[in-house]
Structure prediction request, 134 residues.
Amino acid sequence: MVTELNPTLKFSLDPKSGVPFYKQVILQVEMAIVDGRLGNGDQLPTVRSLAVELKINPNTVARAYNELEIRGIVNTQQGTGTFISNKKIELTEVEKERILSELTHPYISNARAYGFTLEDLIEHLHNMRREEKK
Prediction:
């Protein structure tokens, strides 16, 4: 499940990852803040709109937003929306590596199951990058 609510922010849920959907939403908001796609004052989609786009229960999105608010990462203004706060979030290199590993291991395992080598994957990723730059 993938949704694009603005050009710089895509939410994507992986039902096979074993990570609860609300945690996936939290992590993606945090990563978007860390890499600059979201900043202080940026508005998140409404609970209902994100739930509809991701085809999940609105309570799941509400749980993610509530957790983000408890951590001070977002501020919710009743009737107005949920906004990114000015709290700085920094992930260590170890945390970034863990996240990247969680994303890539299933991809590599699936590709290998179809007979692709790591070199095939690397070449494919290089080709995708070249296409993006055009």
